[in-house]
Write a structure and sequence with these properties.
The structure is a homodimer. By secondary structure, chain A is α+β, with helices and mostly antiparallel strands. The first copy, chain A, has three helices and four strands; from the N terminus they run E-H-E-E-H-H-E. The relative contact order of chain A is 0.28. At the A-B interface, strand 1, strand 2, strand 3 and strand 4 of A face strand 1, strand 2, strand 3 and strand 4 of B.
Chain lengths: ~120, ~120
């Protein structure tokens, strides 16, 4: 098991795909806020999980998973999230792209699993 | 402009979200194959773009974007892709999760854009 993976239910559910290029400023403030936003998101109704990574070049992808469009809309309107989002857009990102998508199919291979037998 | 971002059209279109934990083996072989797969994918009908990153912990997210489910199915069946995928599942990943999703909404902020005027 690896905590970097979201343990989502069977589809359908929703994904918010957030790709961003950090501008290299305020690493400490950004890291603290990012951690806090994940913690806060995980307490919201309809939150299913999150997967996030960022390379040494500052390009990152965060995918959060939600039960419904309504859950995404409620999180979007959450006051502290909205304030942090507005601050982040002005101070932390050179560029970002956000996409909302409906997950229709999913499969994977956990660590140490085997799909063949001998 | 930043080449790490996919320049996708207006939704709807499809996203293949691939989250993976590298096992730390064969970095050179993996990097070469990953680059080649992106190059090959970009030549397929219906390919719209790809965004990919991996952190120092070996956890990565790659999102490829496609015009249709049919384009995803054709790429899935591409012989060289299928062979590399099978090899990779056996040799490069400790764990992976793949999700296919329909992008319904999208927006972003490119570098140097302003949404307010003075």
């Amino acid at each position: 098991m690896n905590d970097a993976f979201a343990r989502t239910p069977q589809p359908p559910y929703y994904a918010v795909i957030f790709a961003s290029q950090r501008n290299g400023e305020d690493d400490a403030g950004y890291a603290q806020a990012a951690d806090h936003m994940v913690e806060l998101a995980s307490q919201q109704p309809g939150f299913l999980g999150v997967e996030s990574t960022r390379g040494a070049d500052g390009f990152g992808i965060t995918v959060s998973y939600w039960e419904s469009e309504e859950a995404i809309a409620a999180w979007r309107q959450h006051a502290e999230h909205a304030a942090t989002r507005a601050y982040g857009r002005a101070h932390w990102y050179q560029h970002y792209e956000l996409r909302v998508a409906k997950v229709e199919r999913a499969y994977g291979k956990p660590a140490n699993s085997k799909q063949t037998s001998t």
